[in-house]
Amino acid sequence: MSKVSADMRESKFWANLQTGLYLGDVGQTYFQKGFGLKSEVGPVLARTYQSTTVERLKTFGYEASAGGIHFKLAREFGFCYGVDRAVDYAYQTRRQFPDRRVFLSGEIIHNPDVNQRLRDMGIQILSESKDPVERFEEVTAGDVVILPAFGVSVPELKHLSSKQCVMVDTTCGSVLNVWKKVHYYAKDGYTVIIHGKHYHEETRATASQALTHDGGHYLCVRDVAETELVCNFIRGNISGAELMTHFADAASPNFDPDLHLQKIGLANQTTMLMSETLKVQETLRKAMLDRHGADGLESRFRAFDTICSATQERQDAVLDMLKDGGLDVMIVIGGYNSSNTQALARMCAPRVTTYYIDSPGCVEGATIRHHIVGTAGEQTTDGWLADGPVRIGVTAGASTPDSVVGETIERILAMRGLTAAELTQPVQIAQGSSTVATALVDKTSYA
User: Fold this and answer.
1) Same domain, 272 and 232
2) What pLDDT is recorded for position 11?
């Protein structure tokens, strides 16, 4: 291939990647910037997803009290820009194509309230399947398919393109940034190590980007423990065959550790716990240093910070609340399949009584239904709200709208016959007034 042709191919690749689509030309059946209907759907979104209760709390400096209940709201919580944009585009799509069948290739975000509202608008959420043919069997020419904020895999995009349907891509810009790093790695001959859940939509989409280059490979590690297994192989303590018994479903086809772990580049699912990603990075770096020495490290190991800023801001806000202390209970709100919400719950649970709920309906009078990360289903706790003064921290994952946060607070107030209108400016929570404050809070210590 001539240099001019190569440069043109590279230019087209990056142009396509900016839209999250590595397919070549797809004409006018692909949309990534909405339909100019924001002014029309904006009022509907505001009525549906905003909350006067949340705004009242913000007006009081993110803290307010009523009837002995003191609420402290995280400084950063709930809908991030990428989620807000994805939901906006979904509403615009329904308005743009009122008479067409509209599908979502999966949940647009991991929040049950938002997804149900989209179903109520007549948008069909397709069932999960790793086989694009099976997943999109119902889709025909002229139908509209919304791609979620997590993105979809390259094979799925190619299959949808072949069906001559309309695609509306809501892939988050932070995810696209990870894809760009993955392409740099794969292009330069590095195997991509992805810190993430191999079955998660975003991780599957990211992994598929590595395979768009000849010789591209990937391996997904869920946590530090799985990373240690990879490092045991790198140091020569276990065989490649033994390693692959743990990663058969989390690696690219025909993955050979002896060949494909010589040069590695680290990326991550954007919603993972930042401190854990840093541990994964350092653990891999040390193993590569032990194996190849300082002189060979730079040419064999790469890492970039690809945790999205919204995820980090929400984690930092929770850390600040935990360091301030003074909380009796923490309410974490978000879908149980939301990785960034799980991370928030994992941060809180060791330091304060934490209830991870996915909807206001989990607060049922004196009973609360909640989820413990790492377990299946929900648990029920009776008498969770103590009598007398109680201090409640509230945060929410990046897929949780203010309306859900506000209704949760309203339900808690109703337990004492109160309403949000009775919330007033409180006396500041005393620093260190709870045993929570005595816990050592270190941004790099979470596992």
Assistant:
1) yes
2) 47
What pLDDT is stored for residue 436 in this prediction?
36
- The rounded distance, in Å, linking the Cα atoms of 399 and 134 is 27
202 among known catalytic residues: yes
Output phi, psi for 216, to 5 deg: -70, 140
Mean pLDDT, range 300-307, rounded to an integer: 87
Same domain for 274 and 197: yes
Of the residues 76, 107, 156, 202, only one is catalytic, namely: 202
Report the predicted TM-score, pTM, of the whole model to 2 decimal places.
0.85
Whether 287 and 248 share a structural domain: yes
pLDDT band of residue 435 (cuts 50, 70, 90) is: very low
